[in-house]
Amino acid sequence: MSTRTRRLIAKSLGFGVVVVLLLVASIRGFAQSDNSQISGFVKDQNGAIVAGAKVSAKSEVREFERNSTTNAEGYYVIPYLPPGLYTVTVEANGFKQFKASNKKLDPNIATKVDVILEPGAVTETVNITASTATVQTETSTVGKLIEGKQVELLQLNGRNPLYLAALKPGVS
């Protein structure tokens, strides 16, 4: 093999490696998302699962709604929801309609809404409007949204917003 051929092969391999690295870096960038999901179980008052119940999550801020149906285990998942406040509605034959308002969905932090349906006509509605602080018992993920007011009131060294990450537990 001549020296010229070796140089050509070395240049093309170097170019190929650069292209592969750029592709890998761009794919990793697509993995970042602020969407989240709402999931949970639908059961009746006795703890029996309710399969085939229609579950919908409607944004209280935007004209946006997603639907799902419970599976054979009474479990549902509504993925790819942008952050915001949602109203979760559950309907099933032979049960009153369940409606939970003001469910806050933070970026990339899944929310669990378990539902207990009461017997009755579908035209009757059970409204839940109070919200409590949510504790995630399914995962060990620690997530907290840093709001604008917190940034304004904190004394940061050099006003670098990257130092905010160090203020949350579990961040190193």
Key descriptive features of the protein:
4-stranded mixed β-sheet, 5-stranded mixed β-sheet, elongated, 172 residues, alpha/beta, 31% strand
Describe this protein's structure.
This protein is α/β, with parallel strands linked by helices. The longest helix has 28 residues. It is elongated.
Topology (elements, then pairings):
Blueprint: H1 3-30, E1 36-44, E2 54-59, E3 65-69, E4 75-81, E5 84-91, E6 97-105, E7 111-112, E8 115-117, E9 125-128, H2 148-153
Parallel strand pairs: 1-7, 1-8, 6-9
Antiparallel strand pairs: 1-4, 2-3, 2-5, 5-6
Query: Distance between the terminal alpha carbons, to the nearest Å?
Result: 52 Å
Q: What profile does the largest beta sheet have?
A: 5 strands, mixed
Task: Describe the strand arrangement of the main beta sheet, using strand numbers.
Answer: 3-2-5-6-9
Order of secondary-structure elements = HEEEEEEEEEH
Q: How many β-strand runs?
A: 9
Question: What is the average of the pLDDT values?
Answer: 80
Strand coverage percent: 25-35%
Share of helix, binned: 10-25%
Structural class: alpha/beta
Question: What is the count of helical runs?
Answer: 2
Q: Please mark out the parts with pLDDT under 50 across 5 or more consecutive residues, or reply none.
A: none
The Cα radius of gyration reads 24 Å
Dominant shape: elongated
Give a short overview:
With 172 residues, the protein is α/β, with parallel strands linked by helices. It has helices at 3-30, 148-153; strands at residues 36-44, 54-59, 65-69, 75-81, 84-91, 97-105, 111-112, 115-117, 125-128.
